[in-house]
Design goal:
transmembrane, alpha+beta, membrane, transmembrane helix, 2 helices
Length: about 140
């Protein structure tokens, strides 16, 4: 009697497994697509963050170079100094860097604004748009 009951329960369980097998496949495919989308979004956000950090470093280095080259005379044109430094700076990981503005804020602080084009890691996909990333760097003249 017990053996027949166990056999009956096992056959019902295997019948349920066969009827739900397609549902699990769809669930697995959906989960894989959601995971892949999340991974691509995280990688693109990381790429954008690294581009911004590199551009900020380049802007700050340019501002420091302008302050050092000006020798305390911040009333002279500063853009040629910034352009000269940028042409010598190795801009790894940055593309199409442009000098937007070089200005003096309070007769002691040099502000340099740079912009660059950001390209996602996966440039071959339809959804990969490029954008413009801008960053500022400040350097203050010492006493």
């Amino acid at each position: 009697m017990k053996f027949a009951l166990v056999k009956q329960l096992l056959t019902r369980a295997s019948a349920c497994k066969d009827s739900e097998r397609g549902s699990l496949a769809l669930l697995g495919i959906g989960l894989a697509l959601v995971s892949l989308t999340a991974i691509l979004a995280i990688l693109s956000a990381g790429s954008l963050y690294l581009t911004d950090r590199r551009l900020t470093g380049a802007a700050e280095a340019t501002a420091l170079s302008v302050v050092a080259e000006a020798n305390g005379n911040l009333s002279q044109p500063l853009e040629p100094m910034a352009s000269r430094f940028l042409s010598q700076l190795p801009l790894r990981g940055l593309r199409e860097v442009t000098l937007v503005d070089t200005s003096v804020d309070d007769e002691r602080t040099v502000r340099v604004k740079l912009c660059s084009r950001w390209f996602p890691i996966f440039e071959n996909y339809i959804f990969s748009e490029n954008g413009k990333v801008c960053s500022e760097g400040l350097a203050r003249l010492g006493r």
